[in-house]
Amino acid sequence: MHIHRILSVTAMLFVAALVGAPTAAAWEPTRPVEFVVPAGSGGGADQMARLIQGIVAKHNLMKQPFVVVNKSGGAGAEGFLDVKGSKADSHKIIITLSNLFTTPLATGVPFNWKDLTPVAMLALDQFVLWVHADTPYKSAKDYLDAVKKAGPNKFKMAGTGSKQEDQILTVGIEKATGTKFIYVPFKGGGDVATQLVGKHVDSTVNNPIEAVAQWRAGQLRPLCVFDDSRMPYKGKVTETMSWHDIPTCKEAGVPADYLMLRGIFMPAGVPKEAVDFYVGLFRKVRETSEWKEFMERGAFNQSFMTGPAYAKWVQGAEDLHRNLMKEAGFLAKP
Amino acid sequence: MEELNSLFYGFSVVLTPYNIVLMFVGVFLGIIVGVLPGLGGANGVAILLPLTFAMPPTSAIVMLSCIYWGALFGGAITSILFNIPGEPWSVATTFDGYPMAQNGHAAEALTTSFTSSFFGALCAVIMITFLAPLVARFALKFGPPEFFSVYFLTFCSFIGMGKEKPFKILVSMMLGFGLAAVGMDMVTGTLRLNFGFSELLRGFSFLIAVIGLFGIGEILLCMEEGLEFSGRSARLNLTVVWDTWRRMIRFWGTAIRSMVIGCWLGVTPGGATPASFMAYGVAKRMSKDGADFGTGKLEGVLAPEVANNSAGTSALLPMLALGIPGSPTAAVLLGGLLVWGLQPGPLLFVEKPEFVWGLIASMYLGNIATLILCLTCVPVFAAILRVPFSIIAPVIIVVCAIGAYTVNNAVYDIWYMLMFGVFGYVFKKLDYPLAPLVLALVLGDAAESAFRQSMLLAQGDLRIFFSNWLVGSITGLALFALFWPIVARGLVALRASRVGATAA
Fold it and tell me: Does B53 touch chain A if contact means CB atoms closer than 8 Å?
């Protein structure tokens, strides 16, 4: 419970800092900052980290550079354990995806987000149900009715990794609609989209950025987005449709929703001034035109949170993942 | 020809002094990346990617792709000189390249490797220029069963190659599969064979094994045998390039076969590493001097080098045309495209022709630049062998250690490297072949995933590997390659008995 206390103390300090004027001398990195990516190079988290690295360098937002380091071993456990083991190191940050929750739950590797210091939520990644454009399914209902009619283990859903976000979401769809897919795991979101274009599988739950190229080329069709409300981007992506034109899955009669965290954490035991510095840095990054463009291209949900609100959100997300994974039988230690 | 017009338009985009300087800078950096073991093309491009955000996208991609060409060429240098593959796709180059250097023919081996690399890359670029849309559609036909059949074919065309006892080959290969299985099981999402050690989470990286087995193992052997490299007597001769070219022309058949293998595996994201192994295996089978492969045959350097460069280059095609990376480096470049505000995929050719055709034009120019830079440096590289062992060996060990660390930024990997070094030494002493272990380690994981994905798709029905003409013919070819030695022996026996019968 030690960590809990530290967290609540930092939380209180944070609130105090918000109320009172921040007078403490500003902390700044004195050597290059290691930016850990708990995933392989070329993936979504890696792209975002390298974009941030580029933006920070281009606009001179920090005196020291970021050094992006991929530690993808054991579904990201390697990266998280590294940060967990670097207590009080203010020159190390990590970008997370859902494997912050799914990896320890599915593999039993000993770490939890409470071993880290939450810094900021940068964005939330959406999930969209995609089918091949040559199929007759015009809506999520059409498609899922067909899946139901065909019986269990006939339709194939491709996704990234096993017992991770894509499979959890697939189980969520199955639970909500009483269907059963054959779930086939692949290494990355790009592979998944290609398998669908090549008609080796029937559907995917790719993130927008993973499948947008194939959508624009008329090879894939989005059926619904797994969120409470539609995506806000109204600019035309294809000739006839914008991201906003994709209905939510709830509208389409599939009560499942899921968003993936793209957030930043630091090791435990770092001074509050360091956390504040990085929060300020990411606020500046969010203001740049490069970042805004990237958000729109990937149709991200641009929620930004820091401090206690962020920690509370992460706690909620962890509970959600534990429940979903428990129901699906994915827990290493049930 | 519409493509030719576009191509010349591309040349006009690329041929600015600024871009040409960037091109040479890129090639130079790439050769360094290729020479340093561990710092692979993907890492090299990833590290330099943020530097390019301030450049116009076309200049940026010209520079980054030139780093890639440099790495593709440069990986062979240390393979030939020190038996240390700088890149995974250069492992097959060591089989004949290093013996050539030991025989005093380092310069010939280097010239062969660079020229073959150029030939492979050039053919692949020509294919990209004229057949892009057609070839891109072919790449889409590859699902898990097709991938597995390709890996299977690589294993089968490689089996029975060594002079060692089949049992020893089997032991070595199984060890490789065992090491490949450590870490994350992608299909079930659980950890395996890590015995609770968090340092085993990431498994055994193929590169670390190669650096240890080949590099450190070789140095241990040299220390035992008298503290010097046997290639010291390498003669340096300015006409060596010309002489080697004349000798290479005889092997045009091997070059074309290797090029086809390379292009094919590059487009279907099989990659340059299996391509180089498969081309070496096929060349050994088809060559008149097949039995002498491994003793320093020029043809044995040519085949893998043509294949790995044509594969490495054609791997960019699916990235441009479909938005699927054909190799890890292509995956990083793909990330770069997104950051520059370009959307890779089928519409890129239509929306950003100056970018696509600029890139393609830079492929031609970049490869020529690389060839010139590499060939002029052949005497310099070959002269490295004249540096006394007592100076160069510690340097190599330090470079290997840095390389091993760079792969995953993990200090533990240096210990693994040393462990693999001892492994490599023992293997050589006991006359166990290393190549099957390396092949199993590099492709084991991918082959296993592809097999299990296929089994999921087919719900356990093995007939999926014969379910259409494509996968059926690759699997058939693999089985044929696997059983050919037995069939051939049977045929010979049959013929002998028939001859015996008529004589009687």
Answer: yes
pLDDT in tens, A120-151: 999 999 999 999 999 999 999 999 999 999 99
Using CA coordinates, name the residue in chain A closest to B141. A198
Instruction: Please give the structure tokens belonging to residue B25.
Output: 């800078």
DSSP annotation of B164: S
pLDDT tens digits, B357-383: 888 888 898 899 899 888 888 878 877
Residue B316's alpha-carbon distances to A57, A230, B66, B329, in angstroms, are 28, 35, 13, 9
Residue A187 — φ and ψ, nearest 5°? -75, -45
Decide if A41 and B325 are in contact by the 8 Å CB cutoff: no
Pairing verdict, β A203-204 and A33-37: unpaired
Nearest-Cα distance to chain A for B212, in Å, is 20
Q: Is 0.95 surpassed by the pTM of this model?
A: no
Write the secondary structure of A7-66 as one string of H (helix), E (strand) and C (coil).
HHHHHHHHHHHHHCCCCCCCCCCCCCEEEEECCCCCCHHHHHHHHHHHHHHHCCCCCCCE
- pLDDT > 90? residue A203: yes
Residue A195's domain spans which residues?
Answer: 128-245
- Are A153 and A101 within one domain? no
Q: How far apart are CA B120 and CA B117, in angstroms?
A: 5
Q: Which of A225-239, B203-217, B320-334, B340-354 has the lowest mean pLDDT?
A: B320-334
Residue B456 touches chain A, beta carbons under 8 Å: yes
- Best B198, B356, B465 residue to mutate vs chain A (most A CBs within 10 Å): B198
Could you tell me if B460 lies within 8 Å of chain A, comparing CB atoms? no
Domain endpoint, select from A245, A271, A288: A245
Are residue A160 and residue A11 in the same domain, yes or no?
no
CB A180 within 8 A of CB A172: no
Residues of B in contact with A109 (CB under 8 A): 191, 198, 201
What's the token pair of residue B9? 């338009």
Sign of the C-alpha dihedral computed for residues A135, A196, A43 and B117 taken in this order? negative
The tokens of B156 are what?
């089968």
Q: Specify if A251 maps to a domain.
A: no
> Does one domain contain both A100 and A14?
yes
Nearest to A197 among B140, B184, B338 (CB): B140
Q: What is the DSSP string of A168-185?
A: HHHHHHHHHHT---EEEE
CA distance A214 to chain B (A): 7
* Number of residues assigned to chain B: 504
What are the angstrom distances between the C-alpha of B281 and each of B164, B293, B481?
Answer: 15, 10, 10
Range of the domain at B200: 2-503
Q: pLDDT band for position A22 (50/70/90)?
A: very low
CATH code (residue A201):
3.40.190.10
- Domain end, chosen from A193, A218, A245, is at A245
